Amino acid sequence: MADYPRHPDREEARLDMSISQVWAAERISCPHRDILRAYLAGGLEAAAQDYVAFHLEVIRCPFCLANLEDLDAATSAEKEELRQRLGRAADRTVSSSAVFLERLRDSGAGG
Ligand SMILES: [Zn+2]
After folding, report:
1. Tens digits of per-residue pLDDT, 12-26?
2. Rg, Å, the chain Cα set
3. CA 106 / ligand 1 centre spacing (Å)
4. Least packed by Cβ within 10 Å: which of 35, 42, 66, 79?
C-alpha cells in the first residue's frame, strides 16, 4: 500500500466543510431510494454500505435521513401486511385441508 502525504488538519477540515456544503446544497452524492432500501435491509456490499453509512451518519444528509425514516415506516407497514396475508393464507390452507380430509373420509378412502 502506498503512503499518501496527509493534508495539514486545518486544510482538511476546510475541505471537509466545503464538500459537505456542496453535498447539502446540490445533493450530488445522495444514494437512490432503492439503495437506501437495500441499506435498511442490510443487503448492500460492504463498500456501498460504508458509503451510505458515511452519507447518513457523518454528512447527516437531511434529505436521505428523511427518506430513510419514510422507508423504515413503509417497510414496517409492508411487513405487517405480509404477516396478515400469510396468516390468511395459513387459515385458508387449514380449512381447505379440513374440507379435503372430510371428502376423503366421506369417499371411504380414508378409513
Ligand atoms: Zn443525501
Report:
1. 666 666 666 665 566
2. 26
3. 65
4. 42
